[in-house]
Amino acid sequence: MKPLAYRMRPKKIEDIVGQQHLVGPGKIIERMVKARLLSSMILYGPPGTGKTSIASAIAGSTKYAFRTLNAATDSKKDLEAIAAEAKMSGTVVLMLDEIHRLTKPKQDFLLPHLENGSIILIGATTENPYISINPAIRSRTQIYEVKPLTAADITQAINRALTDTTNGLGDLDLEVSPEAMTHLSQATHGDLRSTLNALELAAKSTPPNDEGQIILDLPIVEECLQRKALVQDKDGDAHYDVISAFQKSIRGSDADAALHYLARLLEAGDLISVNRRLLTIAYEDIGLANPAAAARTVSAVTAAEKIGLPEARIPLANAVIELCVSPKSNSAIQAIDAAIADIRAGNYGDVPDTLKDAHYQGAAKLGRGTDYKFPHDFPHDWVKQTYLPQKIKNKQYYQPKENGRIEQAFKKQYELLKHAQK
């Protein structure tokens, strides 16, 4: 039998769970499908977030033939067979998994078919395509990020699986407790494939009670997911409460409290949330007061990902303690948020002519870059000139703090440079 996650793949674009920034009304993929003007694309994001589902739904909505291959394991002959099919019967939508592992011979074979549109390529990868995918493929595709599903998205998919009598579990007399439902929706961090397969395992391996009903409670779901819940929390807030307390304890410089919440998260097997949160904290809350701590946090998270639990607790504890005892500064996040607020409010002007691109014929006639002063040609590699648009030339986004000798030094240098620019 095919797994539940496979059986529940959407047949049309309206059935896709999540990813509304791509498939919602008026969004880019929905527009392509509606106009039947598909272009090749690369979808990148974490496992189980719907990359294959989007490809399947696109093909179903447009009635094109849909084929799937794996760039790592399928051969050039498999690609040739799909190209022959496209030549005989028309456009084929090809879902190519692990596209970052596409070899040059396969790539060279595909390129002309992408050019003439006989194959609509939908590549899927968990890797950053701007780093891992050959520029020749990138230049012929649109690149879209697929984001982790929210708990609400996963709950929607679970309920659909529980009621679907054709492809889901709707033919079973099945009840999922509120605590088990909350854990199913949160524990896989947006990986719907893992959630649905754990749900099916739980449903098929749990004997019915005396009334013939299968009851899935929290312990059963924990066992099938192989992830413990933080607490039995009917409202689903405990998971986020612990993560919030973890960050706030580090921000408040309480190492013992931070280690306590770290332990709770690790005991629940939630290495992903710990790593994400630590990287955010390092740059958001410690920031310029101790930049080296951020670099060491990145190293600790990388080590934790490579060695896994339980050993991952060691580099993570190192990072947590250092972040707690470090001086704190949120000046960087405040600076960028202030700049973004100006952009969103329309408070910006034209790039000064001296800074505009001058690497094309005729740029000098337009006055582009002609008066630019190259700082490295001047003493101390600095020269006074205007960089901000004239409309906001005196704007100051960065407000330095003095909560550590490093940002104290940054503050002194920043103020010297600002004064010299006047």
TrEMBL record:
<dbReference type="InterPro" id="IPR008921">
    <property type="entry name" value="DNA_pol3_clamp-load_cplx_C"/>
</dbReference>
<dbReference type="InterPro" id="IPR003593">
    <property type="entry name" value="AAA+_ATPase"/>
</dbReference>
<keyword id="KW-0067">ATP-binding</keyword>
<dbReference type="InterPro" id="IPR021886">
    <property type="entry name" value="MgsA_C"/>
</dbReference>
<dbReference type="Pfam" id="PF00004">
    <property type="entry name" value="AAA"/>
</dbReference>
<dbReference type="Pfam" id="PF16193">
    <property type="entry name" value="AAA_assoc_2"/>
</dbReference>
<comment type="similarity">
    <text>Belongs to the AAA ATPase family. RarA/MGS1/WRNIP1 subfamily.</text>
</comment>
<dbReference type="InterPro" id="IPR032423">
    <property type="entry name" value="AAA_assoc_2"/>
</dbReference>
<dbReference type="InterPro" id="IPR051314">
    <property type="entry name" value="AAA_ATPase_RarA/MGS1/WRNIP1"/>
</dbReference>
<dbReference type="InterPro" id="IPR003959">
    <property type="entry name" value="ATPase_AAA_core"/>
</dbReference>
<keyword id="KW-0547">Nucleotide-binding</keyword>
<dbReference type="Pfam" id="PF12002">
    <property type="entry name" value="MgsA_C"/>
</dbReference>
<dbReference type="InterPro" id="IPR027417">
    <property type="entry name" value="P-loop_NTPase"/>
</dbReference>
<feature type="domain" description="AAA+ ATPase">
    <location>
        <begin position="37"/>
        <end position="149"/>
    </location>
</feature>
<protein>
    <submittedName>
        <fullName>Recombinase RarA</fullName>
    </submittedName>
</protein>
